[in-house]
Each structure stands twice: as C-alpha cells, then as structure tokens.
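Q: I'm writing up a methods section and want to include an example of the input and output format. Could you take the sequence below and give the corresponding predicted structure tokens, formatted cleanly so I can copy it straight into the document?
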Amino acid sequence: MVAMFWAFIKTAFLASLPLVEQRLAIPMGHISFGLPIVYAALAGILSNIISVAVVLWLLPHITKYGEKYSPPFHRFLQKIYAKTREKHSKKMKIWGEVFLIFFVAMPIPGSGGWSGSLIAFLFGIPYTRAMKLISIGLILGGILVASLTIGINEAVQFFKHIPKEITEFVPLELP
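A: Here is the clean output for your methods example:
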C-alpha cells in the first residue's frame, strides 16, 4: 500500500512538470512504477490540472510585475502579444475553444496543459473559462494516453510470448 502511494506521488510529480506532463507520467506510472492504469491516469490528469491552475493564476501576476519593473520586458511582451494576436486571431475566432481543447488533448511535442495555458493567457481567455477548456483537453488527453499505454504494452507483451513452435521456421539469416 505504501509503495502504491509513492508510485502515485511520483506519477503525479511527473505529470506536473512542463513538457513531460501526462504524456510521460501515465505510461511511467503504469509500466515503470506498477500502478494500475486507472490510478496512473488519475494521478496524471489531476496533477496536470492542478499545475495548469497554478500556471494560469501566476501568468498575469508575473507579467504585471515584469511590465512594472522592467521596461524592456514590457516592450518584449507587447511585441509578443501583437504578433501572436495578429497572426492567429482569425484562427482563434473560427476555432477558438475547440482548438484549445484539442491542442491540449493531443499527445504531441509542444502541446499540453502548460502550452494551452499560455495560449489562453495570450488570447485573453478568462481564468475560469480557460480552466474548463484546458481541463476537458487534459481529461481527453489522459484517456487517450492511457488507452495507448494499454494497447502498446499489450502488443509488446504479445510479441514477447510468441511460442517457439511458431517462430522456429523463420530464418535467422537472409539468404
């Protein structure tokens, strides 16, 4: 029971890190730490949601502080805001909330809760709305990652245990 608790904590910690998030935490929790897939997914999803809530809450405070005490930082942020909104505002008007949900849910490099919170902040999506959208994306992404983890793990286990009778006629060397 204690080992399972620490496996849950390690999985939750991994899921709260940027870049790694639940894409690595859920497979690690299940395969490496020995957690049942439901617990690994639960740890990954919940801690990722908590870390995103903190990031979304901190971003306005950090930028206000930086803008107040550092004029170069203020100019830099204004350029980023202008460039991002100019380049992507049409896409956000068309796809908006759906894009944010699927961007967060897709287990590809550069996407996830932390990136989704940055997008929500840059486009001025209110905190509670952004949290709802990002949470939906994280839940969908967690289910997707958990499903892929189970499927890939089962496929690997299947090929590990192919009976020797089936593979003995396969040539080891090509002629």
